[in-house]
Amino acid sequence: MSLRRFDVAIVGGGIAGTTFAAILGGAGLTVALIERQPPAALKGSAYDGRTTAITFGSRKVLEAAGLWADLAPHACPIDDIRVADDASPLFLHFDSREVGDDPLGSIVENRLIRKSLYKRISATATVTQIAPATVASLDTSGSLARLTLADGREIAADIVVGADGRDSFVRAAAGIETIGWAYMQHAIVTIMGHELPHDNVAVENFLPAGPFAMLPMTDASDGTHRSSIVWTDHMDAVPLYMKLDLPAFEAELQSRAGEWLGRVWEIGPRFTYPLQLRHAKRYIAPRVALIADAAHVIHPIAGQGLNLGMRDIALLSELLVDRRRTGLDLGDPMLLKRYEDARRMDNIAFSATTDILDRLFSNDIPPIKLARRMGLGAVNRVPFLRRFFMRRAMGAAGALSRLGRGERL
Fold first, then answer.
1. Residue 292, by phi and psi: left (phi above 0), alpha (psi -120 to 50) or beta?
2. Last-in-domain residue among 220, 242, 275
3. Residue 285 confidence (pLDDT)
4. How would you class 267 by CB atoms within 10 Å of its CB: exposed for 0-12, middle for 13-18, buried for 19 or more?
């Protein structure tokens, strides 16, 4: 079989991989996007109930790349975030009006994100979708990276980018080790219907077994008010909750949601997945770079997983596009080192923060419980601290790439 040549080969056609391909392809780079699943399964409209929190910073990246307009009609803004510790009267309230006119973030259904991204890359002449396909081997010993697929096809590129998730083939093939651990928690994800409108308010209630998050969604076509649920609990308890019949599961939802949304019910379906922290010891190898979950997996306690990946994508896109305009090698080791150095500390900081928050709040130890409740109340009373935490959560603080500032490449 003949060898096909590209500027960039991306392994992994999920949200991170397709976003990266769309940005690079839109800037004129030739891209191979390799994905194990059939395209129809990824860009289909089947309802699966999963959602993604897109921060203000990630929205700026998508806007600058021309990708937000298709998503905006389906995005529910987050205007307020309320953080509570079980039944404590002390809480933390983030109000978007304190930091500007934009929402803190938006909630969008994953199926609509995928559908929009695949529509874009299908219309981009410089992006070639190779799916379903499995990578069998990776060779970076020569002047180009070479990928051999399971069916014998061969692909060459200046650089291979691993966007293939927490169990990344590219990471393993490049000999990059990880550090981390599994939490004794699993997450249950579903969609909850409710009697009263959510008013664009997101709620995260820290319970002894883990946080229970209610994230506002757009109303269904029939007018049903909806919220996305991310319910973290002990790994031994989650299988029992997953087996509950509908009335029993809805009773559990109601007990955790409280009465502020009125009567609640499950729209479903339910999903569950184990929680872990995993961080690649390196983000790069010869002619290889890792982005998103292939580089770092964090606890979903702050909803920052994909948003950290968006910052990876924004910076690496900028470096590669600028490099291509000079006509120089995209796999240059110095370029890859710049990417790793710029993204590593931000990702480590968020990984550590989410880990500490989970350990601090997912327990019922009286002295710790008292200290954290007083801490929530104290931060809520200090405006500059509230604004600091909001800007961090929005992805609007620290060193930002051009895309992160809303500038086109």
1. left
2. 275
3. 98
4. middle
